[in-house]
Structure formats: C-alpha cells, structure tokens
Write a structure and sequence with these properties.
Blueprint (H helix, E strand, L loop, with lengths): L7 H5 L8 E4 L6 E5 L5 E9 L2 E9 L5 H16 L5 H11 L2 H16 L2 H19 L9 H10 L4 H20 L27 H17 L4 H13 L3 H5 L6 E2 L4 E4 L7 E4 L2 H9 L23 H10 L9 H12 L4 H8 L4 H5 L7 H18 L1
Antiparallel strand pairs: 1-2, 2-3, 3-4, 5-6, 6-7
C-alpha cells in the first residue's frame, strides 16, 4: 500500500491480515499505525536513537482520533529530534518502576471507584489489600509471571472461592496494566491458571428450623437483645427473597404499600421491582419510621442504616441452633418455599430478580419434592391395601 496521510477515512479502509503490519503517514515521517490481526489499530511513532529503532504506542484508533494522535506524534518526535527526550526510554522506565502495589492503587482509584458498585468495590479492595498486596509486596508489575500467580492461587486452595475471586481481580489488574502501558500486550499471567471447582451452597430452612428462628426473633426483639430494625431486616429477607444490601439500604421512598411493591432504583442486576406478599406488607406497616431517617432499617445515627447485620445474625442463629446458616440462605429459603407451593421456576426467577434462567435453574431439583411426597403417599396406601 502506498503512503497516504493517515486520516479517519484512510484508516477505516485498512484491512486485518494474518499478521500485524504498520502503515506510515505520508506527511509526518515516523508517524504510523499498526493494524492487528483482530482489526484493532494503534497509532505509534518510530524513530532511531543511538543506532536502535524505537517504537512507542500513542493510543488505539477510536478512543484516540487521527487528529489527536498526529498532534501527539508531532510533540513526541519533536522532543526526540531536539534531544529533549526519548519517549521509549521514559516508557521503559515507567514500566520497570511500577510495582504491583502501585498498580493496585491505580486500579482501585481509576477503575473500581468509577465503574463498580459499592459492594463490588468492597470485594475488589479486599482482594487487593488482603491477598494481592501482601503476596507481591514491591515486586514489579511487569515481572509477574504465571508461576507467581499460580503460587498465589495455590496458597489459598483451602478457601477456593476466595482464591478464584482474587485470581479474577488480579487478571483484571493485569489487563489494565497492558492498557496503561505497564505490561506488554497479550502478557496477562493469569490466563492459564485453572480455577478451583466451586460448589454453590443451596441451604434452606426446614419448617422446624423456621419455627425456631421465628421464636428467637420474637424473643430477642421483645427483650431488647437485638434492635427491632435488625429483627425486621431478617424477617424481610425471608419474606421477600431480597439480597442483603437491598434490604439493608432500603429507603421508605422506594416502598409503595398501596401497590404492594418496592421499586429499587439500583440492585445487583439494575433497577427492579420487588413484589410484596401480605405478610411483608403488614411487617412494613407496623415498623416505625425513625424521625428524619429515610432508611427502613434505621441505624443508630441520623440518616444512616444499620451497617452491620452479620454480628446480630450470628447471635440469633446461635440461639436458634442454626450455626451453619448464612444470611443469604434466607433468600434460598424464599426460593425453595415458592417451589414447594407449586410456583414455576420462571416465576421464582422473576420474584428473585434473576436475569438469567440458569441462575434459577439451580433450584430445579427442589421442584421434585412435592412430586416425591405424592408418590410416597400413593405407594403407602397401595402397599397397605396389598397387606
């Protein structure tokens, strides 16, 4: 292809090949664009320094326009020709100097804080500060290898779920390190690490267990052992199937008792409507609204919600003899309860706010319980008739 001025029109015509190739600008020597086999294009400059040919990426075509790339190329090439700097050397120094901890700090500040929801932010920060930083310490981000990542992953084999989450966070960090020029392209050391198998827990409360839980909730609320708002939170979690944060941060402004629903402006799956049964509506009607506090599960201070429901839950479940039951299992119990009264999986999924059918399908085996019970009753009667 003969040289042309690199404009959007010209670049849009460039076709991907089996191998990457570079097209240089006809007007600005040293300014070019690399076309990858994937079809993505990256602006660059090329120059010679101390007898060596050096290349420095400017940015990807699309996010970076041809006009912006040309202005940046003029500036960078001007520095080279004026002996004011070597962009490749500056780039190399930055790559070599960035530690995993520095990468993690930038990841949390520039990516997580601006793109993730509060619960995800907390999970990512926990993975970075408790697992990634202590392991790598001041190791350079560009030197992290698959062997290093495998060692980190293996060190937490006893907690496979956390090991896999940490691996996922580190992988995202390494992808961004490539985007930010800290690591070379296509060098993510996490890609070949196999995740540990995860077995989803589907614990739900039996009728006897729910009776014990109800007795303890009533007792703890009556004698003041736990806040009435904490007790109400656990009852609402069971009666609505909501996620913990959806109830914990719930505001009265989202509640419509006349329509028997809660309109959440945001949740794990985005905005959603939670339909309320009569028991949940009656609970909300009786729950006092704290003066000047917009939250349903009011905290101790003005305008706050209860921030810690884990410790009250541990005390309650211990008193009820339910030591292995998590708060999230109340959501599972709501789902199983729906199936046991004959509701379909699509209906359960709608009530839970699932966006994927596969998510609800994990409860499918519970739908067989009523059928098995009927088969037992029939077979017992027939067996009795046979003598």
């Amino acid at each position: 292809m003969s040289k042309e001025k690199l404009t959007k029109r010209v670049i849009d015509k460039l076709e991907a090949r089996d191998k990457d190739y570079i097209i240089f600008d006809s007007e600005l020597p040293g300014f070019g664009i690399r076309v990858m086999p994937s079809g993505k294009c990256f602006f660059l400059i090329q120059y010679r320094r101390h007898g060596r040919t050096r290349r420095v990426m400017i940015g990807q075509f699309g996010p970076v326009t041809a006009e912006i790339a040309r202005r940046e190329a003029i500036r960078m090439l001007g520095n080279v020709r004026g002996n004011d700097g070597d962009p490749a050397a500056v780039r190399d120094r930055e790559r070599q100097s960035a530690t995993v901890k520095e990468l993690g700090d930038r990841f949390l500040k520039e990516h997580v804080a601006t793109r993730c929801k509060p619960t995800t932010q907390a999970e990512y920060r926990r993975a970075v500060e408790l697992f990634i930083n202590p392991f790598f310490r001041n190791q350079r981000a560009r030197t992290v290898s698959s062997a290093d990542v495998s060692e980190l992953h293996g060190a937490h084999a006893h907690i496979p779920y956390q090991a896999n989450r940490t691996l996922g966070v580190l992988s995202k960090m390494m992808n961004l390190a490539e985007t930010w020029g800290i690591r070379d392209k296509h060098t993510n050391p996490c890609e070949d690490i196999a995740r540990y198998p995860e077995h989803k827990r589907e614990r739900f409360l039996s009728a006897k267990e729910m009776k014990r839980l109800g007795e303890v909730l009533t007792q703890f609320e009556a004698d003041g052992s736990e806040s009435s708002y904490a007790v109400a939170a656990f009852r609402l979690l069971l009666l609505t199937g909501c996620r913990l944060r959806e109830i914990q941060t719930l505001k009265w402004a989202y509640v419509d008792l006349d329509e028997h629903q809660i309109d959440l402006p945001d949740s794990k799956t985005g905005a959603k409507t939670v339909h309320l049964g009569e028991a949940a509506v009656e609970l909300l009607k009786k729950l006092p609204q704290a003066d000047g506090n917009p939250h349903v599960i009011a905290g101790k201070f003005k305008d706050t919600h209860l921030t810690d429901l884990q410790r009250p839950w541990r005390r309650i479940r211990k008193a009820a003899g339910l030591d292995n039951v998590r708060i999230h299992d109340l959501r599972h119990t709501f789902a199983s309860g729906g199936l046991l009264v004959g509701e379909s999986l699509p209906m359960i999924g709608k009530l839970l706010g699932h966006t994927q059918v596969q998510t609800t399908a994990r409860y499918a085996h519970l739908a067989n319980d009523p059928v098995k019970a009927a088969a037992t009753r029939i077979s017992e009667r027939l067996a009795a008739a046979l003598g």
